[in-house]
Hints:
Blueprint: E1 5-9, E2 16-21, E3 27-32, E4 38-43, E5 47-52, E6 58-63, E7 69-74, E8 80-85, E9 90-94, E10 100-104, H1 110-117
Antiparallel strand pairs: 1-2, 3-4, 4-5, 5-6, 7-8, 8-9, 9-10
Amino acid sequence: SDDKTIKLWNVETGQEIRTLKGHDNYVYSVNFSPDGKTLVSGSWDNTIKLWNVETGQEIRTLKGHDSVVYSVNFSPDGKTLVSGSADNTIKLWNLGTDWGLSDLMGRSCAWVRVYLQNPNSGVREEDRPLCDGIGGKSS
């Protein structure tokens, strides 16, 4: 939202449950983890934040984009996060670490789709060159 917060609502009653505060600029994208216990947010402050849904506490801040984070989502198993930014990169984040697995150019990269659909598929970090030529070289 424009006020730099995330509001959680009870959709049955229309009551606000809580307000999450922590971003330094507009919040642009939010998504729940597959188990519903974690919320991820992307912001105009170039960061990604993970939140505990039950307590409203910030779990972690991920930094690595050089511009607005427009899109955030979890893999089906909840172990990987994907983020897209106005800096023309897509990053995969291993939630067991604080570093991005890969900067990928081009949102149609087959490597991203295969990895997110099945992290046990045998696709590895070394397979990044599969994205070469789609919007530029992967880095």
